Amino acid sequence: MMLSLRRKYFYKAIGYFAATEFMTPRRFKNVIAAWQRNGLDLSGAEYHKKHVKIEAIHAKNWLKNVVVPVIKKKTDSSFDITRGVIYRLNTSARYLDMLMSKFMHKQSC
Ligand SMILES: [Fe+2]
Q1: Which of 12, 25, 73, 105 is the residue whose CA sits 20 to 30 A from 50?
Q2: pTM score, two decimals?
Q3: Residue 22 C-alpha to ligand 1 middle, in angstroms?
Q4: 48 C-alpha vs ligand 1 centroid, how far in Å?
């Protein structure tokens, strides 16, 4: 998120946010599945239920209205946009790996 604070990271931020929008629907579907698996009241998951569709629309529009026009205008921006995507995917992977490690450690105790 800090990428949006400096103009020099503008293109990386575009990629970062694109990846975020594309990942969110699946992640929220998994949250809802876990919600149900744990027998929680689904009324508490309204935000996630709504945003499965909303974020899919954001992702499509982000690609159509931001990523594609920016790359058309400045072709070499695709390198930094891609780096931003990789930053987001790596951040998410590291976070989820850390959670998995913690959960696996707790199960073995
Ligand atoms: Fe969004």
Answers
A1: 12
A2: 0.86
A3: 9
A4: 12
| Backbone phi, psi, residue 80, to 5° | -75, -35
Query: Quick one: 13 exposed, middle or buried, by C-beta within 10 A (0-12, 13-18, 19+)?
Result: buried
Q: Is residue 71 within 8 Å of 81, Cβ to Cβ?
A: yes
Side-chain-side CA neighbours of 12 within 13 Å: the count stands at: 15
- Going from the Cα of 28 to the center of ligand 1, the distance in angstroms, rounded, reads 12
Q: Is the dihedral of CA 27, 30, 36, 39 positive or negative?
A: negative
Residues by chain with Cβ below 5 Å of ion ligand 1 = 55, 58
